[in-house]
């Protein structure tokens, strides 16, 4: 990117009166330089089949050009017009909940050939209208794409065909999925039962993986059409979103999309990151979801949607909007774009407020946006294209996510994969240990000194062996409970657990339960065990902590094992955050972890958050952010130029950071 992009999604079609010129002028005044348009407007541009009217599109494009605002155009395929829904009975998806009913968005079967025919025609018509506009800089494919739980006959036939390719021998298929259980055996491919009725978790998980593949194929299909029209200087992106389900831990890995695979369709990764504000703002969601986004292409990414005023209860305190914008950029984002510019006056999202409130006038949110936009015009050349060189990575795995949806860690289905992922990720965040997020693929491991496995429930034997070899060759592994338990089909391994990894970890176990009145203590910290606990025996491992309990105290809760040239730690239960931070800190000390390529801020912890990187001019940039309502102080260990205030800071100088504020240092 030549500059940081800052703006909002914009919908002339939704406005209560004509104000496109006024809106673009307000954006320009606020230092905004990009809008995203078009992804929600199929029925406006094709009110009736074959009758196209792109008047509102060109009104937005022309006004944006006059006000020096770049445009990202979204393909409007995720919300279909009503006339298209009537074309065939199976255009709306048949799901586990039954047939779809028109009204909601994202309710169509993305495998339906009639839908695809009309979607392609709309994409091509749109591209013909916009591709040569010089200020159109890129294209967004669809919107937060999923397979929408499509379970219709066509999708299921495609699923069976995919199984035939993987398992030419029907007996081998039945064995791989354990279908002798409850007489679920498939005697003939022609008799394959409706997937909606299966009680076999492995088969359900395989269909979930197949559905994720439909998303990848759909995005690649759209990308190929867009690529026929786009200029070499225009990008293709997608606004990948994340899991909202609070029962599963919320705001974590999206279970319905294999984002690492789907990102192959785009030239730059994009995402939608939403998070709490006000008293609940921590910045942790910006970090972990941004790290997933950066990991999709191992490169900078675009935040295509985040909140301005947002959902009810999310109105930010003064300073928080600015702090969050900088936190995205400090994480490697090259764009921050709000959903959306104006608050909508009707329909389901009337109370999801944008930059402007319903009166469409300047307000506190707009004025804070103007501070950000005009600061970025002044110093953005130092902040764009920030590259990260992290030595710590967290493995994020879609099949394990699905496995713990099929087999949750409690009977109320409230504790899932993302809760474990966030447990580790948020602890690293509070300790100011920057990390990448990587898929469960062996080729990534050697790039990192430390790899963390949050509940890697489902894993191929080849990958588990690669992890064992990684430790033997000098890597350092931190694995949690529920790791290395089941194979790719989430069929449980039938030997010593954790499968293959038990030697590197130096432990084994064969029993587990829910902790009740159990604590885990380490050093001076102690706290309750939560959600899950395994009864671990230490074989060659050192026991760092045992359960505090009159019966379970013979079992290890935390172990450390040296194996080959490396080491591995096992966390047999989930426990309080303060204890986890102590355990992780002790592990880092034990292996003498250091990042000499980064500026060391020893003992600086949350609510002060430090993020570092190198820009395109090879300048080392350090962000120090205060995620609290109290003033914070710290010593700067090297001489630096503070970019926001244009001041020089001497080595060792003590500085203060106001509540919800930050300093940006260019190291001298």
Automatic annotation (TrEMBL):
Highest taxon, organism lineage: Bacteria
Domain (Glycoside hydrolase family 42 N-terminal): residue spans on this chain: 10-378
Presence of the UniProt keyword Metal-binding in the record: yes
Pfam families on file: Glyco_hydro_42, Glyco_hydro_42C, Glyco_hydro_42M
Enzyme class per UniProt: hydrolase
InterPro entries registered for this protein in UniProt: Beta_galactosidase_C, Beta_galactosidase_Trimer, Class_I_gatase-like, GH, Glyco_hydro_42, Glyco_hydro_42_N, Glyco_hydro_b
Any single GO CC term annotated in Swiss-Prot or TrEMBL for this entry: beta-galactosidase complex
An annotated GO BP: galactose metabolic process
Occurrences of domain Beta-galactosidase trimerisation (ranges): 391-591
Family according to the record: Belongs to the glycosyl hydrolase 42 family.
Name the UniProt record assigns to this protein: beta-galactosidase
Organism: Agathobacter ruminis
């Amino acid at each position: 990117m030549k500059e940081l992009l800052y703006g909002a999604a914009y919908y002339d079609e939704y406005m209560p009166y004509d104000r496109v010129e006024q809106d673009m002028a307000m954006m320009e005044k606020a230092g905004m330089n990009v809008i995203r348009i078009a992804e929600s407007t199929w029925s406006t541009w094709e009110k009736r089949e074959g009758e196209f009217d792109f008047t509102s599109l060109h009104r937005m494009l022309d006004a944006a050009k006059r006000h020096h605002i770049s445009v990202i155009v979204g393909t409007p395929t995720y919300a279909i017009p009503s006339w298209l829904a009537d074309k065939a009975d199976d255009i709306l998806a048949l799901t586990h909940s039954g047939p779809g009913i028109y009204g909601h968005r994202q309710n169509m079967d993305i495998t339906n050939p009639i839908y695809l025919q009309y979607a392609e025609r709309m994409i091509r018509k749109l591209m013909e209208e916009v591709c040569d506009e010089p200020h159109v800089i890129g294209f967004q494919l669809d919107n937060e794409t999923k397979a929408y739980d499509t379970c219709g006959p066509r999708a299921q036939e495609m699923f069976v065909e995919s199984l035939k390719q993987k398992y030419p021998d029907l007996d081998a298929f039945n064995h791989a999925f354990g279908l002798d259980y409850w007489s679920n055996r498939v005697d003939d491919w022609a008799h394959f039962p409706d997937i909606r009725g299966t009680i076999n978790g492995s088969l359900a998980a395989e269909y979930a993986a197949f559905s994720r593949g439909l998303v990848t194929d759909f995005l690649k299909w759209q990308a190929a059409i867009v690529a026929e029209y786009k200029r070499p200087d225009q990008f293709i992106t997608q606004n990948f979103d994340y899991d909202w389900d609070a029962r599963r831990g919320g705001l974590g890995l999206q279970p319905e999309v294999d984002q690492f695979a789907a990102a192959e369709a785009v030239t730059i990764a994009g995402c939608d990151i939403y998070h709490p504000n006000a008293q609940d703002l921590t910045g942790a969601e910006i970090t972990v979801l941004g790290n997933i986004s950066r990991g999709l292409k191992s490169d900078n990414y675009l935040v295509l949607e985040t909140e301005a005023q947002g959902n009810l209860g999310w109105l930010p305190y003064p300073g928080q909007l600015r702090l969050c914008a900088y936190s995205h950029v400090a994480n490697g984002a090259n764009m921050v774009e709000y959903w959306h510019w104006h608050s909508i006056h009707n329909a389901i999202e009337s109370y999801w407020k944008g930059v402007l409130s319903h009166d469409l006038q300047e307000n506190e949110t707009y004025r804070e946006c103007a501070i950000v936009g005009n600061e970025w015009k002044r110093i953005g050349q130092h902040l764009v294209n920030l590259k990260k060189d992290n030595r710590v990575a967290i493995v994020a795995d879609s099949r394990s996510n699905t496995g713990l949806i099929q087999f949750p860690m409690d009977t109320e289905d409230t504790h899932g994969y993302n809760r474990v992922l966030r447990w580790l990720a948020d602890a690293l965040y509070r300790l100011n240990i920057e990390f990448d997020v990587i898929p469960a693929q062996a080729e990534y491991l050697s790039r990192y000194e430390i790899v963390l496995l949050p509940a890697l429930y489902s894993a191929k034997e080849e990958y588990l062996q690669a992890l064992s070899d990684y430790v033997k060759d000098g890597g350092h592994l931190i694995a949690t409970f529920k790791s290395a338990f089941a194979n790719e089909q989430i069929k449980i391994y039938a030997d010593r657990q954790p499968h293959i990894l038990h030697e590197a970890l130096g432990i084994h176990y064969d029993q587990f339960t829910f902790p009740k009145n159990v604590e885990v203590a380490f050093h001076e910290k102690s706290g309750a065990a939560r959600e899950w606990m395994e009864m671990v025996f230490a074989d060659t491992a050192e026991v760092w902590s045992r359960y505090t309990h009159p019966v379970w105290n013979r079992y290890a809760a935390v172990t450390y094992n040296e194996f080959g040239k490396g080491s591995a730690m096992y966390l047999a239960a989930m426990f309080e955050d303060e204890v986890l931070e102590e355990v992780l800190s002790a592990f880092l000390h034990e292996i003498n972890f250091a990042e000499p390529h980064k500026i060391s801020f020893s003992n600086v912890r949350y609510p002060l958050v430090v993020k570092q990187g190198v820009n395109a001019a090879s300048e080392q940039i350090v962000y120090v952010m205060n995620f609290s309502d109290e003033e914070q102080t710290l010593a700067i260990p090297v001489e630096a130029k503070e970019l926001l205030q244009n001041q020089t800071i001497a080595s060792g100088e003590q500085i203060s950071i106001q509540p919800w504020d930050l300093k940006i240092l260019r190291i001298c």
